[in-house]
Sequence to fold (252 residues):
Amino acid sequence: MKEKPIEESQELNEIFLTKELTKQDVLIYCKDLVKNYEIGDFIVKAVDKISLEIKYGEFTVIVGPSGAGKTTLLNLFGGLDSPNSGTVYNQGVIISDMDQESLTLFRLINSGFIFQNYNLISTLTAEENIMFPMNLAGMKFEEQRERAVKLLKKMRLDERREHLPFQLSAGEQQRVAIARALANNPPVILADEPTANLDKKTSQFIKELFQDLKSGERTIIIATHDDDLIALADKIISFDEGKVIEVKVQST
Fold:
């Protein structure tokens, strides 16, 4: 895979993000994207030569049955995974050509990931989990803590800041995970089934949070089966067996 120096990747990204973006601008674009997995003697085509675009500020939902390849597609969009072939363009950078060091920095600054299984660091408190990406980005400690406290308050977790993940309910862990995704104020949020396996009250809170995020200028991409989240979408991508079945644009 072709490597791109970290300085060049940063420069491209800074030029792109200083543009006056509008909702007509394409923020993420992929062309002829392929991702295969080898399972024994079989090759599973998780993403099978697809081309898509997502515009700045767009709330996009990916729907489809379990095993359709939705999570893989999210990971390719955000640079958590690399394609076997094809191109992923994200915020002015061809991330599918990036070396791992550049890609790690790009993800840290530009994308917030929300995982179905939360992926919190078990030895860190709720507050420390939220501060962790800010620390990696080089933010001053006082600023990290101030922002973490604000995010905990936004998530209604003021009383849980010193709790470790195992001391938190599933819904509380997911809210910490969302706060962590927002920590560096990234322009793109990618979420994989963010309301799965949560109680009704927490699911409703998270839906309201995404409604609030949508009102800003953030680009949001969610893989979900949740009808309420689907109803928020500007664009719905129906995905099955690694292929795009339909792309529907709806007014919300």
Observations:
- The domain at 6-13+23-249 is CATH 3.40.50.300 (Rossmann fold).
- The first helix runs from residue 6 to 17.
